[in-house]
Amino acid sequence: MKNPLAAILALSAAAAFAADETLTVIREGAPTYTVGSTTSTGAYAEARVRADPGYATPGDYVVPAISLGIVPPVQIGAETADVFGLRLGLPYASHNNVLGLDVGLFATDTAGDFTGLQVAGFYNGVGHTMRGVQAAGFINDVKGDVLGIQLAGLANRSGGFVEGLQVAGIANLGKDMPGLVGGQVSVFYNSANRMDGVQIGLLNYAGDIEGAQIGLINGATSVKGLQIGLFNATKRLDGVQIGLSNYIEDSGLRWFPIVNASF
Question: What b-and-e string marks burial along 136-160, b requiring 16 or more CB atoms within 10 Å of the CB?
Fold first, then answer.
């Protein structure tokens, strides 16, 4: 082909237009869903649910969509549009809902829901639910729920429920999250309001935790399970503490070195 760049841009424009018009289901007898650029919540939710591994089978959907962005509004598809397929931010793109592969040299921004794999050199941002995997050089920030994995060089944050794993070079921030099922791993600090799983870091904090905290300093309101660290503290414990200093506020034996327990 004489001009591959022109061909790619032409394909991208056609794909973006097609994605804005219809979500094509190739399974025989299945319906066709309308995907509007600003009112696509229902269709997007339908596509997202059907895209789950436990629900759909490979090849159910052909959703032609390729979006290239430089800095909004210099991108294929308006910021209110949805992207189903591939989005490339060179260095940055912003859309409504995104399903598929999302790569930003600097950052990615999704105002609504994201489903798939999201990779950015610096920052990934999602306004509602993130379902899949996020990997960022510095920060992953999800305002809603996280169902999957967050990997960040600096920090991960979720404003909603987390079901999965957060791994960060410095901190996992979940103070305001309603709950976490899975794990938090960081070099320095982990926090969660309510957690079923494991925290591993120098400093770990949880409101209520069922599972384990492993770190230099562990703190919680209520622990059902295990705390292992140099300093362990909790208001209520149904389990065991192992460390140099172990403190249980609601206990006849509040402080005890090496091993402390309450059941």
Answer: bbbbbbbebbbbbbbbbebbbbbbb
* C-alpha pair distances (Å), 179 with each of 130, 146, 235: 15, 11, 19
Rounded to a whole number of angstroms, the distance between the first and last alpha carbons of the chain is: 73
CA distance 162 to 141: 12
CA distance 157 to 148: 13
Tokens coding 180? 């976490």
Phi then psi for residue 198, to 5 deg, are -130, 140
Strand-pairing partners, residue 210, are 196, 224
The domain spans of the chain are 4-197, 202-263
Q: DSSP letters of 98-140?
A: EEEEEEESSEEEESS-EEEEEEESSEEEESS-EEEEEEESSEE
Do 88 and 100 contact (CB within 8 A), yes or no? no
**39-43, 67-71, 77-81, 146-150: least confidently modelled range:** 39-43
User: Considering only CA atoms, which of 79, 134, 127 is closest in space to residue 102?
Assistant: 134
pLDDT at 59: 36
Q: What is the pTM of this model?
A: 0.75
- pLDDT beyond 70 at 65: no
pLDDT digits (tens, 9 = 90+) for 95-144: 888 999 999 999 999 999 999 999 999 999 999 999 999 999 999 999 99
